[in-house]
C-alpha cells in the first residue's frame, strides 16, 4: 500500500477549531434551562423552556462528563453570533485552501438543512462514503479522488430505541426538508412506508437505516418522522458515534461512526454483498484497507479493540471478517500485529 499522506498541522488544528466552535454553538443555543432526565438506566440532557403555559423540551444529548462541562460553560460571555459565524467561515476557507474535500452545493445545502432540523442532534449518524470522507479531518488524512469519488447516495442511520426514548422530534419534519429538495419517497414492499427518498430531478438518494435486533425489515424512527430499513451488524457500526464538521459555508455539525468501527464493519459488509455487487465489495475493502493502515499507525489500541469486539460477537461475524481479510493480506498482517 502507498504511503499515507497527511494534511498540514495548520489545517488539522483548523479543523478541530471548527469542530469545537460548532459543538459549542450547538450547546450554547439554549432557549431555557438545561435539564437532566433519566430513562431506563441512561441519562439525557434537554433544553427545557416555556411556551405559554406549556413546558417543552428540546433534546441536547446523552449525558457525559464532556457534555456536562460544555453546558456549565454555555452561559459564559461569548462573542456575538455573527462574529462566531464569520470565524467559522474563515476556518472553512482555510481548510478548502489546504485541500480539504468539500461538498457540492446541493449536497452541502441538504446536509445543512437536515442538521438544522435536528437530524444529527436526535441521533442520526452519517454512514457510507460520506462518513468515510469526513475521516479526513478526524484522522488528518489527505484523501485521493479514487478513494472518495462523490456518491449521490446519503445514508443516515439511527437507533430505533433511542428515537423512541428522546420524546423530541425534528423540526421542520424530515419529510418536509426532503420535499424542499425535490425528494420523493421511493416505493417499498410495505405500502405507505418508505425508507428511501429519491430526488425527482437527478440521481441523488437518501436512505434511512437502523440496527436489526432480530428480523430485518422496516422500523419507525419517531424522532425523525421516517421509516428505516433494519440491518444486521449496524448496531456495531453506530454505537458511540463521534461528532464531525463538514467544511461547507460556515461549517455543518454532524456525527459519524468511530473510524475503527467503520473499518471493521466494511470488512463484514464486503463479505455480505451478493455477486452482482462486486464493485461495491471492492470499494468496501479499499476503504477498510486505507483506514486500517492509518489507524494501525495512529490509533492501534482503538483498532485492536474494535477488531476484537467484532470477532467476539460470534462465528458468523468472524467468518465474514476472515473472508474479506483473505483477499487483503496487507490488512490482515496489520491486524494480526496489533
UniProtKB/TrEMBL annotation:
Organism: Paracoccus fistulariae
Keywords: Plasmid
InterPro entries with a match to the protein in the record: DUF6788 (IPR046738), NTP_transf_8 (IPR022550), NTP_transf_8_dom (IPR058575)
Source organism, top-level taxon: Bacteria
Domain Nucleotidyltransferase-like: 107-310
Protein name (Swiss-Prot/TrEMBL): Uncharacterized protein
Chain ranges of the DUF6788 domain: 19-68
Highest classification ranks of the organism: Bacteria, Pseudomonadati, Pseudomonadota, Alphaproteobacteria, Rhodobacterales
